[in-house]
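New to this. Explain these tokens.
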Amino acid sequence: MEDAGGLSKLGPEERLDWMLKRTMGSPNAFEYRLEELKEVLGDGMTESDVVDSYRSACHPSGELGRYFRHAHLAHRMGSVLFVHGALPLTKQVRDGME
């Protein structure tokens, strides 16, 4: 699938793989995570376990949730805003820059 139009038809495993490849710049992350889980927890790990591991990490009490609670995700220096990733240039964002 090349675009997001059919994402709702995908299962959670395919949707996560698509997001990592198409929006996160991580074309091999899903496969690497599955390999990592198998190495650490055994060969019985499945693609569903990959989804569960991402959900757990991204939960507010997970590793990423705790990190984001304490991290500085953006820094404003004068009229310049530094962020990692992308920020949509909506009217609300533009108005906040003035």
Remarks:
- The mean pLDDT is 89.
- The chain is about 50% helix and 10% strand.
- Helices lie at 12-22, 29-41, 47-58, 63-70, 91-96.
